[in-house]
Amino acid sequence: MADGTLGIAVCAAVGLLLFTVAVRDAVLIRRLRRHGIRTRGVVVDNVRVDGRDSGPTWAPVIAFADQRGYRVEFTSRMRGSGMGLATGREVPVVYLAHNPQTARVGIWRHMVGPVVFVSCASVVFLGAGVLIALTK
Question: Where are the transmembrane segments (predicted)?
């Protein structure tokens, strides 16, 4: 497969996988916006997440009480510079009633950011597959 077929297949597979993840996440965000329960949560900790090349980043851990009064903790999916939340800060939280673990920080960049990031990564891989196909 020296003619680039393997590269095309790998880029297409990764691109489609990432696109599927982005669509799944977008559907969840839509459900949260339409049917989600809104409450307030508190940033109780920032945990270290080891990165591969760029070094460690910090991910906020948010705690809130669901509609039954149980304490729920989750880690924000958005990480990186400008995405941190100070410990003790009160933030809006939205979650689905039947599954509080689907909770997201109700800030635009924390809800939509992962979808945009994964969608862009999908476009990069699909574009690389197209470039490989055009240059062979």
Answer: 6-28, 111-134
